[in-house]
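ok trying this again, last paste got cut off
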Amino acid sequence: MKSKKALICGALALSVLAISACGRDANDPGVPEPPTNTTASEIAVGDQGFAGTSVDTDNPTTVPPPPDFSFSAGLDANGFWQGVNAADYVEMFDFQALSIPANVHTIPDASIQEIIDDMMAHYSTRVQITDRQVEDGDTINVDFVGSAGGVEFDGGSTGGMGTYVTIGETPFIDGFLDQLIGHTPGAVVNVEVTFPDNYFEASLAGVDALFVTTIHYIAGDTIVPELTDDFVQEHFSHMDDSIVDVESLIEDIRNFLQNSSVMEYVRDYLASQVTVHTIPAALISYFEQEMLLQYEEQAWQFGMEVEELIIMFGFESMEELMEEMRPDVEMSARYSLILQAVAQAAGITVGQQEVAAFFMENFGTDDYAMFEEFYGLPWLKQFIRNEKTLDFIIENVVLA
């Protein structure tokens, strides 16, 4: 059974503003991941957005922060915590020669093959069977358009993209897939169903609906293409001109996995091995307020008051919930403090030109006015400086 914290984090992960510790990987307690240029080796990994979720650059948030909270609160013009000399709180370590154990940076061939298998599955096809009737247990490719009272409703259509369903397994409305049994691919079937009375979309609860369903084919065996130099050149070379054959693709994957493993180790090291003697109260307060904002934004998305959301999570009060999340708040504060200590020691700063360059590289535009309006320039500088600082540590690691 999931813990209360797991349920909370799962819900908050839906939020555009889910940038606190619980919204991140456990080994990345302080810094949301910016988007990166996708390489062939990242196809099976996926992308993250600016604040840990997908980002619409025309509308970076769904709801503004409350007037009593600012992401840039407590930061000076350069994105450092005001009045905080991080070295006074952090026991410094050899961040210019951090040793990475061999078992961390040595990538097994099996791990590389797993990535290759995932990538090739992306290009796999299914044998298309069209000369027999659909039977119970078949996986079929279909398109459908749903309507109620003659009016199409949102989410009731595949948009002509085709989707796979398995008779007897795929969780559709009761009776939907059973009505496809006995029909031959190419048939258009008028599937009539009634939405359950407790259906989550209230406007459809208990409503009779019609799904005009086209059966394209019965899916047979999966055909996985052979990984050859020609296949690599056709599908991957456009992503990175250094990937020209199978050997260079494997090397790219190895480098990607090694970099990821080293980054995970460094983040975990910063979070668990670096000593922080005390944490300024201002940082604790800041990250508490940031976390509270997430609950408010999540409650807004659900159309409820934040107090109702807290009860839904199984807590009697906000104080009880925050006590549960206290370790995450402290972890975020510690991580931020550590990165500032390294940046100050290494002389790492970020100016407006670097902010513009960051957005140009990651978003294809140097116009970050909307992000500045929402987050504030100090927060943007801190975010980008944290990334630079992490990169600096990683670039200087020593592979044992």
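PB: full thing came through this time. The CA atoms of residues 89 and 277 lie 5 Å apart.
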